[in-house]
Design goal:
Order of helices and strands: EEEHEHEHHHHHHHHEEHHHH
Number of strands: 7
Number of helices: 14
Helix content: 40-55%
Strand order of the largest sheet: 3-2-1-4-5
Structural class: alpha/beta
């Protein structure tokens, strides 16, 4: 049952649509708030069906959909037609329906109900520029992973034939050595193809690195982040474009939860149970923070002390993730406050709680351990 009394003056004269969007079709539940008429239809995405349906609707119109990976064409269409489109959090939308029955019509009805009752869990949506930069970073990361698979295959061939060169296998001499190995015909053909692919991916990744560096240099936030030791153009640009508006995070805990570097928790009845990382977030950003953290601990005295302490307390894996989380929160603070690394260190020294990069003032400006 949809209650119309909760609608405001603006909503009382519009059409509200709950849309269960799929790749090939969508199910629509549309409420005319003036007459109270409820229309439910299912239409395919072939031809101009979707455009014709939405373009003929009297304005104003509000549409709500769940966030999906294939939704951008629909969001762009709604923007083109001048229709308000709200994107909802899938898990929170599903949590609003306790029943176990789930199908397209019920999903569309649920979205419509949440819209009408002003309970629709809207999420933040990045701009087209940020989406395009994200594509650049994902493309580069995918190429790097493919290059790694090629390197592993070549190392396996080398080790199987008694050639143990380690990282030096990727030097010019190492590549010449593996190319001169006497191998069976099919294995030799595989080696030749892999070496050709390795050269190609090396060239492509270098070009992508240059594009990333150019884009990072053009964005003020990325330039600020690159002043932090151990943070290069890829990590800086990824942090800038994947976080988007830094003010939408209330604190560092919310940020860590968004990226997925907090532990899973199963607590009840006064007993706390913590598991591994939740990993409910962007895997690329989590990976890059981990890689940058390994470089930052060699250059930042405070991070080095923090890493060594966690290494003794928790072990290697947890220590690395702790450093990644601490580095990510630092970068978020720098991005939020629009400050560089030196200003971040100065504020930490002044406040006495984040003396990053200040080896002579381990416990803040006074040099004394704080009293708990």
């Amino acid at each position: 049952m949809i209650t119309l009394t909760v609608l405001g003056p603006k909503e009382a004269e519009m059409r509200i649509i709950g849309c269960d969007l799929h790749a090939r079709q969508q199910t629509v539940a549309m409420l005319d708030t003036t007459t109270g008429e409820l229309v439910k239809i299912t239409m395919t995405h072939e031809g101009n069906n979707v455009r014709e349906f939405y373009s003929t609707l009297p304005r104003p119109v509000r549409v709500g959909i769940e966030a999906t990976g294939s939704m951008m064409w629909f969001v762009n269409l709604m923007e083109e037609l001048g229709i308000e489109c709200q994107i909802g959090h899938p898990a929170k939308i599903r949590a609003a329906e306790p029943r176990k029955q789930k199908h397209d019509r019920r999903d569309a009805d649920l979205i419509l109900t949440l819209l009408v009752e002003n309970r629709f869990p809207t999420i933040w949506l990045p701009t087209k520029e940020l989406l395009d930069l994200r594509s650049l970073l994902r493309h580069r990361h995918q190429w790097v992973r493919m290059r790694t698979r090629i390197q592993n295959a070549l190392q396996a061939i080398a080790l199987a034939n008694g050639l143990r060169r380690g990282p030096s296998l990727w030097s010019q001499a190492g590549q010449h050595t593996i190319a001169s190995l006497p191998l069976a015909p099919h294995t030799a053909h595989r080696r030749t193809e892999l070496q050709a692919l390795y050269v190609k991916f090396e060239s492509d990744i270098e070009q992508l690195n240059q594009r990333v560096e150019e884009q990072a240099g053009m964005r003020p936030g990325s330039r600020l982040l690159m002043t932090h030791p151990g943070v290069g153009p890829v990590t800086a640009l990824a942090t800038d474009v994947f976080l988007g508006d830094p003010t939408r995070f209330a604190d560092g805990k919310v940020l860590a939860s968004y990226v997925g570097i907090i532990p899973r928790e199963y607590s009840s009845g006064g007993r706390q149970r913590l598991g591994g990382l939740s990993k409910q977030g962007n895997p690329l950003l989590r990976f890059l923070w981990g890689e940058a953290g390994a470089h930052a601990v060699r250059r930042d005295p405070e991070l080095k002390r923090f890493y060594r302490r966690k290494l003794v307390q928790k072990g290697l894996g947890k220590a690395r993730m702790a450093v990644a989380r601490k580095l990510g929160i630092r970068l978020w603070i720098m991005l939020r406050d629009q400050i560089d690394y030196n200003e971040f260190c100065r504020r930490g020294q002044k406040n006495g709680d984040a003396c990053a990069g200040m080896p002579e003032t381990r416990y803040g400006a006074t040099g004394h351990r704080p009293v708990d």
